[in-house]
Amino acid sequence: MEIMRLVVTGPVGAGKSTFIRSVSEIEVVDTDRHATDETALLKQRTTVAFDFGRLQFGSDMALHLYGTPGQERFNFMWDMLIRKAHAYILLVAAHRPSEFRYARRVINYMNQQAQIPMIIGLTHIDCPGAWTEENVAIALGYIHEHNRPPIVSVNPTETSSVAKTIMTLVQHYMNNSKKEASSISG
Fold this sequence. Notes:
- This is GTPase.
- With about 190 residues, this protein is of the alpha/beta class.
- The protein is built from five helices and eight strands, in the order E-H-E-E-E-E-H-E-H-E-H-E-H.
- The radius of gyration is 16 Å and the shape is globular.
- It has a single domain (about 1-185), classed as 3-Layer(aba) Sandwich (Rossmann fold).
- It has helices at about 15-25, 75-80, 100-115, 135-140, 160-185, and strands spanning about 1-10, 30-35, 45, 50-55, 60-65, 85-95, 120-125, 150-155.
């Protein structure tokens, strides 16, 4: 059986755990604990190690979804999860521009650990003060469209929205795999 490992990362409160819970076919394994730092201002519980969910596609393919903690102090978990991943998605709450600089640091860290395809998922786009896709991309350092990863709007509470986002990530991974194969053979 082929297993594809996808990492869901981003700042605290962007929707990582909810994203995985929305599509997992198994009860999600989580390490949520009572928030004791500034995270408590956003939510009561937070991930301290990782979340794990699974999607089965027939008898020969499964997606394993790993959600990272949002706090940088747990970046040793980011390192462990990203090194074996095939691709990742960075979730960003579009209505909290104060976190965009931190999201950019997450991208830089992940890209230093593994050169794998990634996409950006914008959450909370329906909230007051939400930034546009273009402005978030620029804030994350993607000034030029041709260097920009795919950016999608996603509602982590809606299974269909999450499924569509995962399909975008898998398609992006497949396209990159084809490019790599043709550059090696050409």
